[in-house]
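Annex B. Sample input.
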Amino acid sequence: MAKHHSPGFLALVEEAKKRVKEISAAELKHKLDNGEKFHLVDVRESEEWVAGHLPRAQHFCRGIIERDIETAIPDPNAEIILYCGGGFRSALSADNLQKMGYKRVLSLVGGWRGWTEAGLPTEKT
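Annex B, continued. Sample output.
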């Protein structure tokens, strides 16, 4: 079921996406399959995380990621890939992390929805 987002929110996301690099589900799957070193962060709400998430992901909901990221991932050069339900909240979070000094932040195009629609693996905690 597609969500309808407000024009102001969509404008904010589009502005953030001008500054944020994105990664496709296929590219992310390749990185996971090859055991590459990066942090995969789910920025969805807790109830979304519990219902299922990507393999190797850690959870920092959008409301706390900026508060907690420096303790969890102190290296500003660490590669961080963020995802949410559809790629909007993760773009906003990625933009903020870049403003905080993180240099290698990516947002998953299509988010959880795109990943699961492609039939890629998920897990539950």
